[in-house]
Write a structure and sequence with these properties.
The chain is of the alpha/beta class. It has one domain (44-265): 3-Layer(aba) Sandwich (Rossmann fold), CATH 3.40.50.1820. 30% of the residues lie in helices and 24% in strands. The chain has seven helices and ten strands. It has helices at 2-21, 90-97, 99-106, 122-132, 147-158, 199-209, 256-265, and strands at 52-54, 60-66, 77-83, 109-113, 135-145, 165-169, 184-190, 218-222, 225-233, 239-245. Strands 1-2-4-3-5-6-7-10-9-8 form a ten-stranded mixed beta sheet, with helices on both faces. Strand 5, helix 5 (147-158) and strand 6 (165-169) form a beta-alpha-beta unit. The radius of gyration is 24 Å and the shape is globular.
Length: 271
């Protein structure tokens, strides 16, 4: 009889333990945690290892994506495309800009295209992101460094119907501007950069194409550096903001990341 009672007790204890294992994990430090929302990818890993988007020519565009914690529970998410230079990788760009940490605090997706071949690839990338995430279509932005900045100027010419605002850093455009829409643009340029002779001509070309009104420069600080800041008002309410940073070489200045994001937030797509 004692053996029978002992067996019943053991069965009950095992059943209780099984129920506890399937619980909500209390404070999140044990158990499986809250159940994921099946309609949102918020509990997916915050970084992915180079997924790829098929392109019309049969090739693929690889990219690295960073999402903030609980992204699927935040509502429609802004997207920042960040294009690296050459040489460069998504990983080195993420390290230099620290966009991932800012995305975690502010709640937006960061997408680092890798084998980027041109602006015609971006619609397929944005379509893929819209399939997998709840994206705020009015708040898609593009930033880039060096050759990535040149790519951002290209996107400003051809993809401004989907991308709201642009931030080329330490880079120049390799052609003129025939704008489909006048978007807002912020740029950071170092006076000690080897590309410095090309900055003023590109700024003038952009200002003419965007219908910007000339404005005086003011003295500001960018971190520990001195800079000259010019803010021009352009057609259709757009802005053209230029930071000319003294003694800065060919680099992404660390304070630029916060300023770029604040600029993006202020300039959603006007539809």
């Amino acid at each position: 009889m004692r053996r029978l009672l002992l067996g019943i007790v053991l069965i009950v204890l095992c059943a209780c333990a099984a129920c506890d294992d399937g619980g909500d994990g209390g404070d999140g430090r044990g158990g499986s945690g809250p159940a994921a929302d099946p309609s949102a990818p918020g509990d997916l890993p915050t970084s992915a290892t180079e997924p790829a988007v098929p392109l019309p020519d049969g090739t693929e565009l690889r990219y690295v994506l960073h999402a903030p914690p609980r992204a699927g529970r935040l509502g429609p998410l802004p997207v920042v495309l960040v294009l690296h230079g050459n040489p460069g990788t998504p990983e080195t760009m993420a390290e230099a800009t620290r966009f991932d940490a800012l995305a975690d605090r502010e709640g937006f997706l960061v997408v680092y295209p890798d084998n980027y071949g041109g602006p015609d690839e971006v619609p397929a990338l944005l379509d893929r992101l819209a399939e997998e995430w709840r994206i705020d279509q009015r708040r898609i932005y593009a930033a880039g460094f060096s050759r990535g900045a040149t790519a951002v100027y290209d996107l400003a010419r051809s993809q401004a119907d989907r991308i709201a605002a642009f931030a080329p850093v330490s880079g120049v455009s390799d052609s003129g501007f025939d704008l489909l829409r006048v978007p807002s643009l912020i740029t950071f340029q170092g006076t000690a950069d080897d590309l410095a002779p090309g900055f003023a001509p590109v700024n003038r070309q952009w200002a003419r194409a965007a219908g910007c009104r000339a404005a005086p420069a003011s003295a500001v600080r960018l971190g520990a550096r001195r800079a000259r800041l010019t803010v021009e008002q352009c057609a259709r309410g757009a802005e053209h903001v230029v930071y000319a940073v003294e003694r800065m070489g060919h680099e992404w200045p660390r304070p630029a990341t916060r300023l770029v994001w604040d600029f993006f937030v202020a300039h959603p797509l006007d539809r």
